[in-house]
C-alpha cells in the first residue's frame, strides 16, 4: 500500500535495501484487515483449490489422521492436567499447548457432529463423519494462509509477481500432499508464519515477534527458524540503526513474548508438568536419519558410507569396518544409524555444524537487518537446520520451500538477482516436492501427486521464466546452467525408475501379504510423525533392494537441496556486490 | 473500400452511402465465394434495398455492409455495424485501436459520428475484421443490466474463471500452454474424482456398473466370441454392442498381463482391491483421452474455428469439465465418453463436409453403445437432407456411398458373429441382448415424461406393456419429428437454389448451409428419446446434454444457449442425485458443480433480468436446494420411501421439457433464417399450439448458433488476419431500440421472424 506510493524511487539495490529498512513505514491500520475486496480471480483460485480438496476427501490418510483424532478425544474428554499424561492410544499428545487448545476448540463441533469422534477409546475410528470433519477443518483453517497471502498482494511492490507467488504458495503441492492427502495442519501453521513475516514487511515488528511466539507454541518445529527471528527482532527492533538499544521496544517485545508463553505453558507450569511436557515434545531417542532419509546432508554422508562399504567389500581395502554398521541403515528401519566406514555422527556434531552455519547467516543479518535480508536469513536458517539437523523429517522441507517462495518477491530485485533467486527456487522446489513423493504410495494418489506437482511446477516456471531470463556471461555460468538443467531433467527419469521398480516389485507380492505398509511413528522428535516403510515381520521374501527407490529419491533430492542451499547462501552473502550469474565463483 | 473514402462527410452522406454500400454487396460476395454466405444473403437483399430506396428516415446513419457468412437472425447489417455495442463481457480480448473506434461508434453523439465519417476507411477495415471474427452472432438479448463492461481497471471484469484464466495466459504470452493446461487439469480432476467410490462398491452379490464392466473384460478374454453374449446372463451378461466388447477385450488383455487375478474367469467376481480399482479407473481415463478429448479439441477447431482463439479454448474448457459426464464416467463408472466422443467426431467430420468418415464414426458410436440411437434421427435426416440438397445425381451418389459405408462398418463390427456361425439365432444374440424391450417402461426414478406423469397416472396398471411400448414409440417419433422435418425442409429449400450454383461449389466438401441446424436437431431428437422413450435410465440424460453443452460452449454469456445450457447441465446433474447419493459421490457432486459453474462464470443472478429463463432458473435452483436441505434433515415418511427421488423427478422433468421445446424453437428459427421467408411457399414445420405457447416465453431470448467457418474465413484467419472478437450482439441501450423502431421495413425480416430485435425485447 504505502510501498506502492513511491516505488519508482528505487533504482539500485542499495537504495532498495535502505528503503526496506524502514520497510513501508507505518503499520497497516487495523481497519485494513477488515476490508477484503477479493478479486474474481482470487475467488477462482479459492474455488478451484477447494473443489480439488473436496475431491481428495476419500484419499489415503496416514496415521497422522488418527493421531489428530486421538488428540481431539484427549482434549475433549480429559481435564487439562491429564493431556500430556494420557497413553490410551500410542499416539500421545506431543505438540505444544496452543495446538492442544486448538484441538480442544475443534473437538466441540466434533462432539456435536458425531460424539464417537471424541471418544477416547474409539481408536482408529474412520467413519465418514470423522473423515469429512477433520478434512474440512484442514480446509477451513488453511483459509488463514489464504487471507495472509491476499494481504501480501495488497501491499506488494509488484502485485503482478506477488500474485503469482501468493497463488503458488496457496496451491503448493507440499500442502496438497502433506495436508490434504497425508493429513496435517501445515496450511494453518504456515499461515501464521507468513502472517508474522507479513507483519515484518509492514514494519510492525512487535506483532511479527508475537505471532512467531504464538506459532512456536503451536508447533515447535519452527524453532528451526527462531535464530533468524531472534537476531532480526533484536537488531531491527530493539536497537537503533546506530547501535543504541531501545529499551522501550526491547521491553515491550520481551514482555509480549513472555506473555504468550505464559498463556501457553502457564497452566502446565502451575501444575508442575513442564518436565513431562518437554519430554513429550523432545524425545531424544532417535537416530541420525529418519527411516526414509530426509533429503539432507546426512543422506549424502550415509550414501557415501554405503558406497565405501561396497568398495571395501569388493576390493578388500583396509578400512576399519564397523560390523554393526554393515547391517544398518540400508534397510530403512527406525533406529540408530551406524556407519560402517565413516566415523559415526553424534547429536553434538550435528548441533555444532548447524550452529556454525547459522552463525554465518546471522552475522550477515545483524549487519544488514532489512526485511529482504531477514527473509533470506530466515530461509537459510531453516534450511541449515533441515540439512544438518539430527533426525530430520522429510516434511520439514516445507520450512525451506515456503519462505523461499516468498524471498523472490521480497522486494524489488534486480533482474540478475531475481534470476539467481528464481533458479535457486526452482531447483529447491523440484527437489523438495519430489522428496515428498514417497509419503504417498497408493497408485491413485501417486498419479494425483505427480500430475498436480507437474502442473504446479509448470504453472510457476512458465510465466516467470520469461521475466527472469538472463543471457549467460561466463563459461562457468554456462557449465553450471547446463549441469542444473541436466539435474532437473533427471527427475522424470528418477520417477520412471521408482514407478517401474514398484510395478516390478508388486508382481510377486500380490499373492502374499503386502510387504510394504505405511506406518507412523508417534514419538518422533519434533513431532513430524510420518510415514515409515516397515517390514512386516514375516516378510522374508523381501529383497535387500526394497528400499533402493527411497534411497535413490533421497540422495538425488539431497543433491539438489544442498546445491541450491549453497547457491542461496552465496547470493545472500554477496548481496550488495552481486551482479548476477555468480560471477564471483571465478 | 475506396468508394467509401470519397463519401461526403456528415449530413448528406447518409443516403448516398446507402446506395453505394449496397452496391458493395455483390462485389463482396464475389470476393468471398462462400456458398453459404452468399446464399444466405440473397433473400434479404431486396428487403434492405427497398428500405434504402424508400428512404425510411432514421436518426442513425446506415451503412449497409457486406455480411460475410453470418447468421441472418442477426439484426440487419446496418444497425449492427453502426451500433456496435461496447465490447461485450464475453470478449476478453483487449481491443485494438480500430476496434476501439468501432466501439465508440456505438454512442450516437454527433462528434463521434463525425469521427466515423472522417475515418471511415480505417473503420471499415476494422469493422471487417470485427465482422470476420464475429461468425457466431447472437441475437441481442438486450437487457440493460447486461453491460458489465465497465470495470477495466487493474483486473477487467471478466465473467467466468475460465475466461479470466485464458485471458491471463494470453496476456502473459504463454497461450500455447492453454490447451495442454486444460487437458492436464481435466486429467487431474478425473483422477481426483476417481478416488471416490463407484457404482456398487461393497455391495455383493451383484455389485454395480463397475463390476459389469470388469466382468465383461473377464469374459471377453476367457471365452470365444460366440459365447460373449450368452455366458451366464443373469450375472451382468454382456448387453452392449460389439465395440464395447472389443474394448473390454483389449483392456482385459492388459489387465491379464499386469495381474491375472483381476480378470480371472468367475473367481474374480467382485474383486475390489485398490490396485484393480486403480486399473479400472485408468482404463476409463485412457479411453477418454484417446477418443473424447481429441474429439473435443477437434470440435473447438472445426465448429468454433471462426471464433477467436480464446473462445475456442474456452469452449474446450467448458466441454471437458462438464460435470455430469465426469461424475458418471469417473465417479459412477462407465465409458460414456467413448460413445459421445465418437458422436462428436462424426459431427466434426460432417462439419468438414467429409460425410462418409462422419457416418463411419457415428456407426462406431452406435456400435459402442446402442444409446447413440437417440441421435440417429437427427444424423439420418441431416444426411438425407444433404443428399436432397446436392440434387439428384450428386445426392444419389452420396446416398449410395453413405449406405455402403454405414453398412460395411456395421458388418465389420458384427463380423465375428456373422462368420463364426451362420445360424440366425447367433446373429440375433447381440441384437436381442442389446435391445431389451421386456424390461418395463422405466426403471428407478428417471426424470422423463413417463416417470413424472406416473405420479398421477399409474401407467403400468392402466395400460398393457405392449401398448405402452407403442405409445412411447409414437410419442418419441412425434417428439423428434420437428427436427427431422426442419432438416429435410432445409435440404429441399436449398436444393432449388443449389441448381443455380456452379459446379465448383457443389463438390460436397463444403458443409451444407443447414449444418447449424444439426446441433439443435440432435438436441431435439435425443431429448425426445429421453423424455418419451422406453426403458430410460437417469444416466441417459448425458445424451441430450452433449448437444446442449456443445451449443453452450463458447456461447456468449448473455445468449439463450448459455442460460439454457448451463441450466440444463446443472439440472441434469441434480436429476442424477439419487444415483450419485447411492454411489457415495455427494462430495464429488458438489465439487464438480462448483468448479464448472465457476469456470463458465454462471450465476442465475447474472442472467437477463426477469426473463423467463432467469425466473425458471431461480425457481428450479431454489427448489433443488430446498430439496437437498429437506433430504438432509427429514426422513421420508414410511408410506413414501421414494418421496425425495420423486420430488427430484418433478423438479427436473419440466426443465427437460422446456429444453426440448426450446430446441425445437431454435431449430425453427435457425431454419427460417437459413431458408428465408421471402421465397418460401410452404409453411414452417408443424408445431402444435401448446408448444408454441410454451416457447412463447423465451422468444425474446437470443439464440446462440454454432456455425463452422467456411474455408474462406479459415484462410483469412490463417493468414494472420487480426480479428476482434466481439462476443455478442447486443444492441446498446436507447440508440438501438430507436433504430429498430424506425427502420421497421428494413428490418422486416426480424419482425417477421419474431426474432426479438431490440424493440421486441423491451
From TrEMBL, chain A:
GO cellular component: endoplasmic reticulum membrane
Topology versus the membrane: Multi-pass membrane protein
EC number: 2.4.1.-
Single annotated GO MF: dolichyl pyrophosphate Glc1Man9GlcNAc2 alpha-1,3-glucosyltransferase activity
InterPro entries: Glyco_trans_ALG6/ALG8
Cell compartments where the protein resides: Endoplasmic reticulum membrane
Swiss-Prot/TrEMBL keywords: Endoplasmic reticulum, Glycosyltransferase, Membrane, Transferase, Transmembrane, Transmembrane helix
GO terms, biological process: protein N-linked glycosylation
Pathway, per record: Protein modification; protein glycosylation
Family to which this protein belongs: Belongs to the ALG6/ALG8 glucosyltransferase family.
PANTHER family listed in its UniProt record: DOLICHYL GLYCOSYLTRANSFERASE, DOLICHYL PYROPHOSPHATE GLC1MAN9GLCNAC2 ALPHA-1,3-GLUCOSYLTRANSFERASE-RELATED
Protein name: Alpha-1,3-glucosyltransferase
Provenance organism: Hypholoma sublateritium (strain FD-334 SS-4)
TrEMBL record, chain B:
The organism of origin for this protein: Hypholoma sublateritium (strain FD-334 SS-4)
Pathways involved: Protein modification; protein glycosylation
UniProt keyword list: Endoplasmic reticulum, Glycosyltransferase, Membrane, Transferase, Transmembrane, Transmembrane helix
EC number: 2.4.1.-
Composition bias type Polar residues, residue spans: 19-60, 76-90
Biased composition (Low complexity): 91-106, 731-744
Region (Disordered): 1-62, 76-112, 725-762
Broad enzyme group: transferase
TM spans (from-to): 177-198, 240-258, 278-302, 398-418, 474-492, 513-534, 611-630, 642-662
Protein name, per record: Alpha-1,3-glucosyltransferase
Membrane topology, record value: Multi-pass membrane protein
Family recorded in the similarity comment: Belongs to the ALG6/ALG8 glucosyltransferase family.
